[in-house]
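fwd from M.: "can u put these together and see what the complex looks like"

so here's what she sent:
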Amino acid sequence: MHAFDVLGDPVRRRILELLADGEMTSGSVCEVITAEFGISQPGVSQHLKVLRENGFATVRPEGTRRLYAVNSEPLRDVDEWLGRFRRFWAPRLDALETELARGKRERRLGRRTGESEG
Amino acid sequence: MHAFDVLGDPVRRRILELLADGEMTSGSVCEVITAEFGISQPGVSQHLKVLRENGFATVRPEGTRRLYAVNSEPLRDVDEWLGRFRRFWAPRLDALETELARGKRERRLGRRTGESEG
DNA sequence: CGCTTATATAAGCACATGCTGATAGCTTGC
DNA sequence: GCAAGCTATCAGCATGTGCTTATATAAGCG
């Protein structure tokens, strides 16, 4: 499943928004989503599965709960794809942003050497 | 149809990539897409329709041809949604980018006063 | 072990989406 | 007007995706 297909679903986008503020249990996500979208617990769980299996979220068990967190790599890929079009709305900043992107990419690759993740 | 749904289709993403290099006729787009994806002319035309109706592309008739071009507004919206997550892969540049985004937004709103679109 | 809570999976149904072949609508040129 | 070329639309079919209910798995607790 392509990154854009994953983001194509409003429920999954909302879940990512929630996770952007920090780790959440499946149950907490479920509370919000069932309230906002009126879908069932299995429905939410299936969306979490899609996010997991496509690398948008990571899980960490804690007792009987499961803590979900954002994994940003696929989002970064989407951002890079968008980069091709960024000049349409930021023509003057194009050069600067190219530089920023280059810096990002270098840090991203260099990160494996032991820097901490924000 | 939400912007992310539009971008969820690989054919539509490819068409946007083509249009990013400049205006193209429906026929030229069709040539590339049918070659790369093996779908028919009506199939391509339907994708162009989706891009049109959701504001990702504009059309300009020229004789019997139709010239398509990128319209970046929906892409910009996608970019802004992604902004929420950008701190995950660019923590240090967060503040700077927030500034850049603010500047962009102001120019974007001010553009209606008569500036040209890139 | 049996009960409860938290979460995931399974089976089945409904609907949306994308594809194709056929065809319609314009525009140009004779 | 008629034929040809380019593009769009239509009708119908197939497949994928998301939802629901029911159930399985796993941990905590008595």
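replying to her w this: Helices of chain B lie at 3-7, 10-20, 26-37, 41-53, 73-86, 94-110.
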